[in-house]
Design brief:
Layout: E1 12-15, E2 20-26, E3 33-37, E4 40-46, H1 51-60, H2 62-75, E5 88-91, E6 94-102, E7 106-111, E8 114-119, H3 125-156, E9 162-166, E10 173-175, E11 180-184, H4 192-204, H5 213-222, H6 226-236
Parallel strand pairs: 2-4, 6-8, 9-11
Antiparallel strand pairs: 1-2, 3-4, 5-6, 7-8, 10-11
Helix pairs in contact: 3-4, 4-5
Length: about 240
């Protein structure tokens, strides 16, 4: 089975024979945990788990994993994308063309203005390409949004208890009563100004946990054109198709 090189900056993957599993190593677990979310497979394992052990876990869970993927694909809205070379995908408001190369799986990378992914040819290829795109977007969203949260939190004068990304069906973010802010990973497809607005929107809830005039004044202080941002997101939300 193929595996990308292990280091702190490069994700680790295993070929599960029809699906690709992302491996997350942590010192906080003593046993493995297999997850299938949005049709993407993730295996959380103790830090020093051998690759052969991970392969065995995937083999033992293969039927369950494939059934979960199948159920997700059946329930998911039909995408307008075919996941072939030449298709355009938005990232921070700019369109980038997809380039699909054949071979052992290699994760999505942005190279010379192209979103490049390598996958084996077969009936599962579109599914693998979509998952590679989603994983790439999520990794980018996590990095970019954490930087923006730190930047704007200091400007607004708040300190969130945590920040992360999630999949929301009809919202761009959330702020919990205990001070955690989470964001829809798809916002990373929007122009930078829209991303900034969403971050500020949620952080301002740490001052005003409502949408009162006082709350919107807090938002306007940082994003003077927030009303235009709201309108743009409202009318363009459905264009973030993947």
């Amino acid at each position: 089975m193929m595996m990308t090189a292990q280091n702190s900056s490069q994700p680790e993957y295993r070929d599960g024979n029809g699906f690709i599993a992302e491996i997350i190593r942590t010192n906080r677990r003593k046993t493995a945990d297999v997850r299938v979310e949005e049709g993407a497979v993730t295996v959380v394992v103790p830090q020093n788990t051998l690759p052969e052990k991970i392969d065995q876990i995937l083999a033992d869970k293969r039927l369950w994993i494939r059934e979960k993927i199948h159920l997700h694909n059946e329930a998911a809205p039909k995408s307008s994308k075919d996941y072939v070379s030449g298709e355009a995908f938005s990232y921070l408001g700019r369109n980038y063309r997809l380039k699909v190369e054949r071979g052992p799986f290699a994760p999505m990378k942005l190279v010379h203005g192209r979103l490049v992914v390598t996958t084996p040819y077969g009936s599962e290829q579109p599914h693998m390409i979509r998952n590679a795109l989603v994983r790439w977007y999520k990794h980018q969203a996590e990095k970019k949004l954490r930087v923006k949260v730190d930047r704007y939190a200091s400007m607004i004068g708040v300190q969130p208890s945590g920040a992360g990304i999630k999949t929301f069906k009809s919202r761009w973010g959330s702020c919990t009563a205990n001070g955690r802010v989470d964001f829809n990973w798809k916002i990373i497809m929007a122009p930078t100004r829209m991303v900034d607005y969403v971050v500020v929107h949620e952080l301002c809830h740490l001052k005003k946990y409502d949408h009162s005039p006082a709350y919107w004044r807090e938002v306007e202080r940082v994003i003077p054109d927030y009303q235009e941002c709201r309108k743009w997101l409202k009318y363009n939300a459905e264009s973030f198709d993947i």
